[in-house]
Structure formats: C-alpha cells, structure tokens
DNA sequence: GCAATATACTAGGACATCCAACCGTTTGGA
DNA sequence: TCCAAACGGTTGGATGTCCTAGTATATTGC
C-alpha cells in the first residue's frame, strides 16, 4: 500500500500531542495508535496466507474454534461469545462457510431457539491445513522476540481482563 | 456485546495449540490474537466517545492529521501515506467529511492530478473538541501502566519498522 | 516533441463489523 | 395455567477496508 515513510508517523503524532500541551496523554495515545497499526499489519499478513484456502480471518477463526470443540459443533451464541464478536457477524460467517460446505447448521436437540454449527469433514481438513500454514508463515515468524511475546501476553491480558473480557486468572 | 467469560479464551486457545503439538508457536499466536482483541476493545471505546460528535475513528484521524498540518491542508495521497490506509479509504472518509462541511476539496495549484483536503473552521473546531474528549476519556484512562506504555511503544515500534512502515530511528 | 510510463484520484464490488428491529421459543412469576 | 419478559438468531442498513479497473494529468526517455 506504499513504501516506507522516512519517519515514524506515530512518533510524530506523539510529538504533536506534546507540542500542543497534551504531554500527559501523549504516550498512551502513541501506544494505542501503535496497537491499531500493528493489528492492521497482522491482519494483512494473515489474510494473505489464508487467501489461497479461500478463507478470511473471520471464517478461519470460526473453523478453528469448531475444530477444538470435542464434538466439532457449537451453538451460534457460544461461538459469538468465545470469538467475542457480534452475533450477526457469526451469522454472516456461517452463511458463507455453509455455502462453501465447510460447516452445516443443525437444530439444537432440546432448545428450539438454538442453532448448532457443525464442522464438515472438508471443513476439518481445511482448518488443519490453514492452521499449518499460519503457524509456519505468521506465528512462527511473528517478528516478536520471546521476551516481547511474554510482555505482550501479560500486558494485554491484564488489559482485556480489566476491560471485562473474562474474570479468571 | 456480552458478559465476561469465566475463562480467558485466548489462554484457552494457547493451551489448545500446545495440546496439538504446536507449542513452538503457541505463545506468538496468543500474543497476536491478544493484539487483535485489544484493538477491537480500543476501537469500541474510541467510537463511543466520538459518536456524540458525529465522527467515526477513521474520520477523526483524518481531521486530526489535517489539524497538525501547518496550512490545515494536505494532498489526498499524503494523507493516505501518513494514515497508512488505502487511497480509496481516504476518498471515502473525505466524501463524508465534505458532506458534513468539515473539510473541502480544492485543486492543487501546480499539479492537476492532485486534490488538496482542507479543514474548514468547523472542522478545526470539531477536531479540537473531539481530541479533548478522547484525551480525557480514552488516552488518559488507557488502563496501561506507564511501564506498559513504554514497553508497547518500544515493542510495536520495532515491529512496525521491521514490517516496512518507516525507516528512521 | 511525442509516445510510453508513472502518478493521483475515483467508481464499483467483495467482506466484515456493528446496531436496531423483528420473529419464534423458552422461562418464570402471578 | 398463562402471559410477559428474556433469549437466540436473522434481516436490513450504515461504515470502513481493501482490490481491480478506469480516467486524467505529469514525467521520462528516445
């Protein structure tokens, strides 16, 4: 999307904040902006790896989640909660995965409101292949040192807990 | 979008990775997933603060960028490069900001291909008010400790440089 | 000087995300 | 028992992001 800039635009923004008398919040602003940009870079890498499999990140996450469920099936609302996305986003992803024959919808045996999402065997196979690719091409070459990974997990874990994502640990 | 989960879903995913024999990349996977989720939480907070101003994050970023330009004007392509988003995303944002009378498009004096985006006085005022709100309600209460902020800036700065965002420092 | 190439922006399309509203199903209290 | 409230999912709409292609203007090279 472009060549490298001569200067770090986020460091520049931080300097602008300080120059305008907002020095007290300039550093957190820079950290937050850096998280945004890093996420953008990571999504682009991940989507690049998944494209040959005909998957997007959202659909991959759903497949991976199902592949870890004992039965290979989960209620929609459970998937929504675990992936921490809006229920309508799950509806959307399931629609497309179902069209691709990677999952099927089935009624819940006892609760008439609930729909179960179930992995097909093609879905399970594709999930495994995509995970192997991601492990090799993204997670295995994250660009973060071991210490940095530990720092990130700790710092962001605290943040997510404080934000109300979960209650344990 | 939901109540807190009893357990950290990302820590669970990391355990699943280890259980499947991918222990060598489980930690980076968890760190990357945590960045994704953190970004999502932060965007939601920011959009919540900006909504009363009739702004989205994308539009705010453009206004803020313009407000730091000496003349209050920038070429579209410059804005695209500094915000590190696709040119069509800038076109989209400018369309809406222009409709809201917060910016205006004007032709470049010497290069007929280039369009300048210029802040109106309403745009400048709104940008200032929105920034004040974000500083108070988001950046000033980020939930990151001072040390964490420094860690994040350093770790993510390295990452972004290695990813080709910029060349200096 | 003119053709070939590069640059700047926009139009249209595919996806994803969220919100608001709606429709069945289930649950719980009067 | 029965109806209101809660729950689970989908539909429709607004935004944003990217990609591909197309138009117009600049720049380069022969």
Q: Strand pairing plus helix content of chain A: what structural class? A: mainly alpha
Query: Counting H and I runs of at least 4 residues, what is the number of helices of chain A?
Result: 7
Strand-and-helix sequence of chain A, N→C? Answer: HHHEHHEEHH
Q: Please tally the β strands of chain A and state the result.
A: 3
The CATH architecture of the largest domain in chain A can be named as Orthogonal Bundle
* Percent in helix of chain A: 55-70%
The radius of gyration computed from the alpha-carbon positions of chain A, rounded to a whole number of angstroms, is 20 Å
Instruction: List segments of chain A where confidence is low: pLDDT < 50 over at least 5 consecutive residues.
Output: none
CATH class of the largest domain in chain A: Mainly Alpha
Looking at CATH, which topology of the largest domain in chain A would you report? Arc Repressor Mutant, subunit A
% residues in beta strands of chain A? 5-15%
Compute the separation of the termini of chain A in Å. Answer: 40 Å
How confident overall, as mean pLDDT of chain A? Answer: 96
């Amino acid at each position: 999307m472009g060549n490298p800039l001569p200067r770090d635009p986020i460091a520049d923004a931080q300097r602008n904040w300080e120059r305008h008398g907002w020095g007290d919040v300039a550093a957190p602003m820079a950290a937050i902006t850096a998280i945004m940009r890093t996420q953008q870079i990571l999504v682009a890498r991940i989507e690049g790896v998944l494209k040959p499999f005909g998957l997007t990140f959202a659909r991959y996450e759903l497949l991976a989640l199902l592949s870890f469920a004992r039965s290979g099936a989960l209620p929609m609302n459970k998937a929504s909660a675990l992936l921490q996305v809006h229920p309508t986003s799950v509806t959307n992803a399931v629609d497309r995965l179902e069209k691709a024959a990677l999952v099927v919808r089935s009624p819940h045996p006892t609760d008439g409101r609930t729909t179960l999402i179930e992995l097909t065997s093609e879905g399970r196979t594709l999930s495994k292949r995509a995970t192997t690719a991601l492990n090799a091409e993204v997670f295995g070459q994250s660009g973060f040192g071991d210490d940095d990974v530990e720092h990130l997990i700790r710092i962001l874990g605290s943040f997510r807990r404080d934000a109300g994502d979960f209650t344990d640990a």
